[in-house]
Amino acid sequence: MNNADKIAMVERYVEAFEKSDVEIIRGMYADNAVVEDPVGTEPHRGLDAICAFYQGALGAGAKLRLSGQVRCAGNAVAFPFHVVMPGMQIDVIDVFEFDDNGKISSMKAYWGPDNLRKDG
Fold it and tell me: Residues 13, 29, 54, 94: which is the catalytic one?
């Protein structure tokens, strides 16, 4: 994948949250992908588990807003963003690794309690 394709995947990811469309997310991931969100928690393995995880986030009204430049290196992309939900915001950095078919094979989300802000 070239850098433009990687950046387009990040933009597609943000779009999936904007549209609350888990099918967009399903199309981005490899069948055997792994999602660890946040890093250090039990990973979600395979499309069904990954889509169930995202369905929960979409159902909670989560929206994404990029907060810095997308970084591309090797078969990966990293990007900072805010998860904005009713009553709170989480500052996150995600790292996607891609397989040879241009699908996400691994997603790791870096955030912790210090990155959560409550509104109100």
Answer: 13
Residue 53: count other Cβ atoms within 10 Å of its Cβ.
16
Residue 13 annotated in active site: yes
d(CA 47, CA 8): 21
Exactly one of 5, 21, 37, 94 is catalytic; name it.
37
Put simply, whether the predicted model's pTM sits higher than 0.90 gets the answer yes
Q: Quote the Cα angle for 11-113-106, to 5°.
A: 40
Q: Could you tell me the mean pLDDT of each successive run of 10 residues in the chain, 120 residues long?
A: 97 98 98 98 98 96 97 98 95 98 98 89
Specify the pLDDT at position 119. Answer: 77
Question: Rounded to a whole number, what is the largest CA-CA distance in the chain?
Answer: 45
| Alpha carbon distance 42, 20 (integer Å) | 24
> Hey, is 29 helix, strand or coil?
strand
Structure tokens belonging to residue 93: 């950095």
* Cα(49)–Cα(18) distance, integer angstroms: 21
> Does 54 participate in catalysis according to the annotation?
no
